[in-house]
Amino acid sequence: MGKIFISYKSEELNFAEHVANYLEGKNLEAWYAPRNIVREGGGDYDTKIINAIENCDAFVLILSKLSDTSIQVKRELVLAADRYHKKIFPLKIDNVEPEELEYFLGALHKFEWQKRKEQALDDLITAILASKDKKISEPIPEPISIANELRLFIKNFLSNPDEAKEHLRKIISMYVPEGTREQIETMDRRYKTGNSYMIEQNYVAAVRLYEQAAEQGHIGACLKLAFIYQLGPETIQNDPEKVKLYLRKAMRLSLTRFKN
User: Fold this and answer.
1) CA 81 – CA 105 distance, rounded (Å)
2) Cis peptide before 161 (omega within 30 of 0)
3) How far apart are CA 176 and CA 7, in angstroms?
4) How far apart are CA 211 and CA 191, in angstroms?
5) Domain coordinates of the chain in residue numbers?
6) Can you spell out the DSSP letters for 22-65?
7) Nearest to residue 179, comparing CAs of 171, 191, 187, 169?
8) In the CATH scheme, what is the code of domain 146-257?
9) CB-based contacts of 79-84 (< 8 A; 24+ apart in sequence)
């Protein structure tokens, strides 16, 4: 059995250490930052984490109210599930029903630490070992990626707007923005405020905020603008050139960050 990557919110480092120690007490090799990065001689954290996820045999997510809203945890989960197709094992440590991470975790069995304590860890280990030895009798379906969803969004953009909106919802659920914490918070705040203005039918204000978020690289804002400029309310003038502009920008962003 190879390494088991442990993903967690930084405030729960002590619990991550406990899980790692428990796994290693069962002769399994655990990997988590910052411990293993230091052991490997330091270096660029992002590169080390990406390499560890790529080369792990299992991805254990310490699922909590904190990790559910963590941008860094979501980045790691996107890499594990979407890019490297790793098996995900959520270890639930408090009474949380995932929202931000629901897209990835909805159908997965969750190991209930808060109810079963060490027995949950034993069950987790059993599941990890079983997944390693499991024979695959049929092809593994290609996982959905942002780029694939975007292609389907564009395909249905004019012919089936309701279907296109469903692909847009999936894109937004998978999307992990890039930038500093302050930039990401500003971008998300503009996007979400734009959504509120749309509900209030204040379309001019919504478009202004979406355009600001799109300028920062928000894929969802780009696609919302394409929708508005093609199929939006009469108060917003149809603008085919802007439709093309924002669709191209969304595709460029998705292919750059989330290659198949």
Assistant:
1) 10
2) no
3) 16
4) 9
5) 3-133, 146-257
6) HHHHTT-EEE-TTHHHHHTT---HHHHHHHHHHH-SEEEEEE-H
7) 187
8) 1.25.40.10
9) 79/50, 79/53, 79/54, 80/5, 80/7, 80/53, 80/56, 81/143, 82/143, 82/144, 82/145, 82/146, 82/174, 82/258, 83/145, 83/258, 83/259, 84/53, 84/54
Give the whole-angstrom CA distance, residue 109 versus residue 61: 12
List the pLDDT tens digit at each of the 260 positions of the chain. Answer: 679 999 999 999 999 999 999 999 999 999 999 999 999 888 888 899 999 999 999 999 999 999 999 999 999 998 898 788 889 999 999 988 888 887 778 778 899 998 888 899 999 999 998 887 544 333 333 344 677 778 788 888 888 888 888 888 877 776 767 777 778 888 888 988 988 888 888 888 999 999 999 998 898 899 999 989 888 777 677 888 899 899 888 888 776 654 43
What are the residue ranges of helices labelled H in the chain?
A: 13-25, 35-39, 45-55, 65-68, 71-78, 102-105, 113-116, 118-133, 146-156, 161-174, 181-199, 203-215, 219-231, 240-257
Which sign, positive or negative, has the C-alpha torsion 96, 78, 163, 214? positive
Overall fold of domain 3-133: Rossmann fold (3.40.50)
146-257: same fold as 3-133? no
